[in-house]
Amino acid sequence: MTDTALHFRPIEATDEAFLCRLYASTRQTEMARSGWPAETVAEFLAQQFSLQHRYYQEHFPDGEFWLIERDGQAIGRLYLFWGETTLQIIDISLLPECRGAGLGSGLLADLLERAEARGLAVGLHVEGDNPAFRLYQRFGFEVAGENGIYLKMRKPAAAQPSRADGLRSATL
Fold first, then answer.
1. Closest Cα to residue 138, out of 104, 168, 89?
2. The pLDDT of residue 171 is above 50
3. Exposed, middle or buried: residue 53 (CB in 10 Å: 0-12, 13-18, 19+)?
4. CA proximity to 69, closest of 156, 10, 137
5. N or C: which end of the chain has fewer CB within 10 A?
6. Residue whose C-alpha is closest to residue 137's, from 110, 105, 93
7. By the 8 A CB rule, do 159 and 87 touch?
């Protein structure tokens, strides 16, 4: 179940520094193995964040780009695209100190409930060594393809939509 203290709001230009820091936190392990100097890592991650951010905005112009807050503090992001047949989870990211506490599971459960209510399949992409891969498998996602870096995962639409439509603890 999603933490009732979580709030969602559309991202704003003033959130960019936080979003860049959040993005960098998702690549800490990878960058630690690079052997690069800290300054080079910081520059690379800032560039990669900028490219990813622009890509998402351009390729999902009708997407929902939410900042996740708890107790007034930004703790993550949730990017979604509601298509005619599929909810595409573009990204779910939480700060390191918020991971592993059930927040991601709660968000995912709520999203799956909303998608089921609309009769939608759910799709996402994840790196195979990302701990979230196992979470997605537990929620019934199956690998539907890969591109060399990311696994394409999909959870088919339920046979019949349910009546629930909305997050249990927050409205997006």
1. 104
2. no
3. middle
4. 10
5. N
6. 105
7. no
Closest to 77 in 3D by CA, of 122, 116, 25: 25
- Token code pair at residue 76: 């993550």
Q: Please state, as a whole number, how many other Cβ atoms lie within 10 Å of the Cβ of residue 41.
A: 18
List strands edge to edge, sheet with 142-146: 6-10, 64-70, 73-82, 86-94, 121-127, 150-155, 142-146
Pull the structure tokens for residue 59: 């390729």
Task: Name the phi and psi angles at 135, rounded to 5.
Answer: -60, -45
* Region at 148 (left for phi over 0; alpha for psi -120 to 50; beta for the rest): left
Asked if 125 contacts 153 with a C-beta cutoff of 8 angstroms, the reply is: yes
Question: Under 8 Å CB-to-CB from 172, ≥6 apart: which residues?
Answer: 8, 64, 66, 78, 80
Q: Average pLDDT in the 138-142 region?
A: 96
Domain residue spans of the chain: 6-155
Q: Can you list the pairs that 29-38 forms with residues at least 24 positions away whose Cβ atoms lie under 8 Å?
A: none
Q: Which CATH superfamily is domain 6-155 in?
A: Gcn5-related N-acetyltransferase (GNAT) (3.40.630.30)
pTM over 0.85: yes
